[in-house]
Design brief:
Number of domains of chain B: 2
Strand content of chain A: 5-15%
Structural class of chain A: alpha/beta
Number of helices of chain A: 17
Shape of chain B: globular
Mean pLDDT of chain B: 89
Strand content of chain B: under 5%
Largest sheet of chain B: 3 strands, antiparallel
Order of helices and strands of chain A: HHEHEHHHEHEHHHHEHEHHHEHEH
Low-confidence stretches of chain A: none
Mean pLDDT of chain A: 91
Order of helices and strands of chain B: HHHHHEEHHHHHHHHHEHHHEEH
Oligomer: heterodimer
Number of helices of chain B: 18
Distance between the termini of chain B: 53 Å
Strand order of the largest sheet of chain A: 2-1-3-4
Largest sheet of chain A: 4 strands, parallel
Shape of chain A: globular
Radius of gyration of chain B: 22 Å
């Protein structure tokens, strides 16, 4: 009976962690209208968070944060990238005591996982790559360094030619470290193979998004979010093949005119701070309250993998240049000083997805996203699109308050829209 | 660099180029005892043709030697470099990078370029000189009297001779030159110019051998702009100062020689070696300073070929800028205007080919879209991966 305090704490952590993850997975499964072929994605999330198992690969894993880390390089070193941005409530409550009060919950959750040392996804990592996109990421990089090898990528404030050149040099340094850690050489051939793996996943993703845009109410945003979230823990080619099956079933649904609902639901776009499983309370609430998440501009969602690396020069350096270019120029991350391109991106998504309202998600303490809210509210106000800002933390205490606000927002949109059914196939794509 | 230092260096280079152009006849590259501008199909078939081709062989071998030496110097420097990837970057790479399927537009562009270059060299010999009174503003040497159409570069660089022509000829020259410029604009550079074809071929060779090129950034393009304007001044003004631009122009080194005319080369020969080397490491290097292209660029606002952009679809990913051989940055930074035709744009369609957003960029002719960007096209190379 002499279990130590640490053991008891660990046990409690595991129980709580698996329970929360299982609960949110169940809520996802209970949500109607999931497309055929979504099971592999649920299984992945279950494997990582409920079973607390290792990532399904026999290769070394490299932890990454943010969208700026090129996964192509990690595949080129014959390792597997795992995205470690966390949305875990249990880890957050532990990290709350380690990180300062005003740090964002995502970083607190990462700190919590590091403290407990129980999560295999984190513990297996041979190396972590942390792009310095905000102050919290900078400090967490320092904290993680005593667990495994950590490489930071400095993200410049602008996207001029000189910034790209600087980033290319950083990528070369990163590649050297990747080679040291994995023991594999990065060659022209292996790099091309990395491009092919990620390129295929991106090809299927763009097909998925194209289908999603074609007919309204084809798939629920929460389900799409689960698919995109599980990309973090699956090899890109496996994920692409699984997504291919979903695409096929969606295509069939289009020809059968089968939608998730026959009612006309308010179409809502989610933007702002990242939404990571199991912190999917906001998309779930929206869809449980009778809305539909039709657009998604968050970095763990559609935006994260959307932009492909375009090779314009066939040399080795040309490919690295394509990666650096892709990492910085199209990225609408608010870490850049001038980020007006995000507004254009939002406007484009609003047009393509027939969005009626925008929910701006801010994680408490996520300053860069919070800064951009005012400008986006102004710009979207000009288009007569209602916007609300939802601030939330990684716990379930605010769930009732969120529910009331989301419900009111959905009612507001319902009042504005005329009564009619739109389920026809769009021809203008 | 300090601004004053920059100005001094730029003006020294420009004056150097001007002096070189003026005294071009003092630097013979290859001299025939007498220039023979008569040619015929029989001459091309005979052994005599090989003799006229000698300067061309010299140019090609010099350029190849230059390229090989540069690659070896790079390899040598890489050995001293402590960074590990300097070796991977300079070694011969094996394997294939992922590529998108060739588009109809690009294939057509290559076919048109090759056919036109053929016609500008041997067209007159085979099909006669029916169109020879028309002038196209293209850098294909008019010393080759057997080319299909006249090229405007001779009279544009010898304006003093133009005014001495009968008025009908002046009208015909001005009419056809301006007509073609308005109709095609700098699409002439991208589709017709044989000098462009030569540089595109050298670039293709580099891409195939996967040798690292020289990537120019915005600062370098800015630095090269004064040289371009200096070239325009030399091009137009040299005849009034008593010089002959043809002794300086690199285009002389190709077309007349291939057509079987023994042509003595002066500075042109040296320049052609540089053009080949430059075109190898930087795509369309000469086009960035081409005086004729710059003059055509004046009319970019009214030509029928246009690059259109749907600013809402653009994600500012900069792939177009990376792909652009002319370094036009405005194409990805522009967020308001739908028309992004730039004075430097040669309508090569490379930006449209590399654009990953549906309909974000398109090439139009007289308002009709002829080439449009598409996500599916750009990802077409990856589609098969899933079937493996």
């Amino acid at each position: 009976m002499s279990s130590t305090l640490k053991e008891r704490q660990d046990k409690r952590f595991i129980t709580k962690e698996t329970q929360t993850a299982a609960k949110y997975l169940r809520r996802l499964e209970e949500l109607s209208g999931a497309p055929e072929g979504i099971e592999p994605f649920y299984d992945t999330l279950k494997r990582i968070y409920v079973d607390m198992a290792h990532v399904d690969t026999n290769k070394k894993t490299v932890g990454t944060y943010c969208v700026m880390t090129p996964p192509e390089l990690i595949y080129a070193a014959d390792a597997m990238p795992v995205k470690l941005c966390s949305g875990n409530y249990t880890a957050f409550s532990i990290g709350d005591d380690i990180a300062p009060r005003d740090a964002c919950p995502l970083v607190k959750a990462v700190a919590g996982f590091k403290q407990t040392g129980l999560m295999p996804v984190y513990e297996d990592c041979s190396m972590m790559v942390v792009p310095i996109t905000c102050d919290c990421k900078k400090k967490i990089a320092g904290m993680l360094a005593d667990r495994c090898e950590v490489t930071t990528l400095h993200i410049p404030a602008s996207r001029e030619d000189k910034d790209i050149e600087m980033f290319i040099n950083q990528l070369y340094e990163l590649m050297e470290k990747l080679e040291d850690v994995t023991g594999n050489r990065i060659t022209y051939e292996s790099l091309s193979e990395g491009f092919r793996k990620v390129g295929y996943a991106q090809y299927e993703l763009s097909e998925f998004i194209r289908l999603k845009k074609q007919m309204p109410y084809l798939i629920r945003g929460s389900h799409a979010m689960a698919i995109l979230n599980s990309a973090s823990y699956m090899p890109a080619d496996v994920w692409g093949k699984a997504l291919h099956k979903v695409n096929q079933s969606l295509e069939k649904n289009i020809s059968d005119k089968k939608t998730v609902t026959s009612k006309k639901l308010p179409r809502i776009m989610l933007t702002g701070s990242p939404i990571v499983f199991p912190n999917i309370k906001i998309p779930l609430l929206i869809e449980e309250m009778g809305g539909i998440v039709a657009g998604d501009e968050t970095c763990m969602g559609e935006r994260g993998m959307w932009d492909p690396a375009v090779i314009t020069d066939d040399s080795f350096d040309g490919m690295i240049r394509a990666l650096a270019n892709r990492a910085l120029r199209p990225c609408p991350c608010p870490t850049f000083a001038d980020n007006s391109q995000r507004i254009y991106r939002l406007k484009q998504l609003i047009k393509e997805n027939q969005i009626q309202g925008v929910i701006y998600h801010v994680l408490r303490g996520c300053l860069v996203y919070d800064f951009e809210y005012k400008r986006i509210e102004e710009e979207l106000g000009k288009l007569d699109i209602p916007v609300i800002r939802l601030e939330s933390d990684y716990n379930e205490e605010d769930i009732e308050q969120l529910r009331i606000r989301i419900e009111a927002f959905i009612e507001l949109i319902k009042l504005k829209q005329p009564h009619e059914k739109i389920t026809s196939v769009r021809k203008d794509f | 660099m300090k601004p004053i230092k920059k100005i001094i260096i730029t003006s020294v280079i420009c004056i150097g180029i001007a002096l070189l152009a003026y005294f071009a006849w003092l630097f013979p590259f290859y001299e025939f005892t007498s220039n023979d501008f008569t040619t015929s199909i029989e001459k091309i078939m005979s052994a005599e043709y090989i003799k006229t081709l000698v300067p061309l062989f010299i140019i090609i071998s010099l350029a190849t030697a230059g390229i090989i030496i540069t690659v070896f110097i790079r390899k040598f420097l890489a050995k001293k470099d402590t960074s590990r990837f300097s070796k991977v970057r300079t070694d011969r790479s094996r394997g294939n990078s992922p590529k998108q399927k060739p588009s109809i537009f690009m294939v057509l562009r290559w076919i048109i370029m090759i056919i036109f270059a053929f016609m500008m060299i041997w067209g007159g010999l085979i099909f006669g000189l029916k169109m020879a009174s028309l002038s196209i503003p293209v850098l294909s040497c008019p010393w080759n009297t057997e080319q299909m159409t006249e090229s405007s570069c001779y009279y544009l660089s010898h304006l003093n001779e133009l005014v001495e022509l009968p008025w009908q000829n002046i009208l015909l020259f001005l009419g056809s030159t301006i007509g073609f410029t308005l109709l095609l604009g700098r699409a002439i550079c991208g589709f017709l110019c044989p000098m462009g074809l030569i540089q595109d071929i050298t670039d293709k060779i580099r891409q195939k051998t996967k040798i690292e090129g020289i990537k120019m950034n915005d600062k370098m393009y800015e630095a090269i702009a004064p040289v371009k304007w200096c070239m325009v001044l030399i091009f137009v003004g040299l005849c009034f100062a008593g010089g002959n631009f043809c002794n300086f122009c690199p285009a002389v080194a190709v077309s007349p020689i291939l057509a079987g005319m023994s042509t003595s080369l002066y500075v042109s020969g040296f320049l052609m070696v540089l053009v080949l080397m430059g075109g190898f490491f930087k795509r369309r290097a000469f086009c960035t300073i081409c005086p004729l292209g710059t003059i055509m660029g004046f009319f970019h606002k009214i030509s029928l070929f246009r690059v259109k952009k749907d600013c809402q679809s653009c994600t500012e990913c900069g792939a177009c800028y990376e792909a652009c051989p002319m370094g036009i940055k405005m194409i990805y930074t522009e967020r308001e205007k739908a028309d992004v035709t730039h004075a430097n744009c040669i309508m090569c369609g490379e930006c449209v080919k590399c654009c990953p957003e549906d309909n974000a960029l398109s090439l139009t002719f007289a308002g009709k879209k002829i080439y449009t960007s598409s996500r599916r096209k750009i990802m077409s190379g990856y589609e098969q991966e899933g079937k493996k």
